[in-house]
Amino acid sequence: MSTFKIHTVESAPEGSRPLLEESLKENGMIANLHGVMAEAPGLLKGYRKLHELALDSSFNAAELTVVWQTFNVEHECHYCVPAHTAIAGMMQVDPAVTEALRNRAKMPTEKLQVLHETALSMSRNRGHLTDEEIEKFYAAGYENRQLLEIVLVLAQKVMSNYVNHLADTPVDAPFQKFAWEKK
């Protein structure tokens, strides 16, 4: 049973109000995730900043989707998988990438598969990658920067995925058509 409130601009703590106003301005709505996070202004601010930094990373749209959704699916986030399915569509990511991630299937390219496997191992092994995994990552064309940016995105996804588990955050109406659950 969730006891978390989904805040509006009016109900949010003072420190979260400008952040929710920004969400409303940018997206035309306040995502339920942001409404829940608003209870802790520092969390919402940190999450929004990490999201901005993820978008500014060296990953292209498909690669960023792979990293985001790898963590969302691994963490079994009922909220973020559908939300990032919609976001991937807005970013014009090949639907084959999104469907492979949602269904734990092989990526459409070897480079994306290596990125997926590296992100998955990073999460499962708490940052401990084998020399072979790192060599495979580099051989696929990635560098230290991208290895570190996986950590950045993981930090962002831990925040959102764990909050959604705690709050059982309802999926926003625009994302409901992309509903997902663990198979």
Query: For this structure, what is the CATH class of the domain at 55-178?
Result: Mainly Alpha
What would you give as the CATH superfamily of the domain at 55-178? AhpD-like
- CATH architecture of the domain at 55-178, by name, is Up-down Bundle
Can you tell me the CATH topology of the domain at 55-178? AhpD-like
Q: How would a textbook summarize the main sheet?
A: none
SS class: mainly alpha
Q: H/E element string?
A: HHHHHHHHH
What does this structure look like?
This protein has about 180 residues and is mainly alpha-helical. The chain has a domain at about 55-180: AhpD-like. It is about 60% helix and about 0% strand. The chain has helices at about 15-25, 30-35, 40-55, 60-75, 80-90, 95-100, 110-125, 130-140, 145-165. Helix 4 runs antiparallel to helix 5, helix 4 runs parallel beside helix 6 (about 95-100) and helix 4 (about 60-75) packs across helix 9 (about 145-165). The longest helix is centred in the C-terminal third of the chain and has 24 residues, at about 145-165. The two termini are about 25 Å apart.
Nutshell version of this structure?
The chain has 183 residues and is mainly α.
Defining traits:
183 residues; 9 helices
List the SSEs and their pairings.
Layout lengths: L16 H11 L4 H6 L3 H15 L5 H14 L5 H11 L4 H8 L7 H15 L6 H9 L4 H24 L16
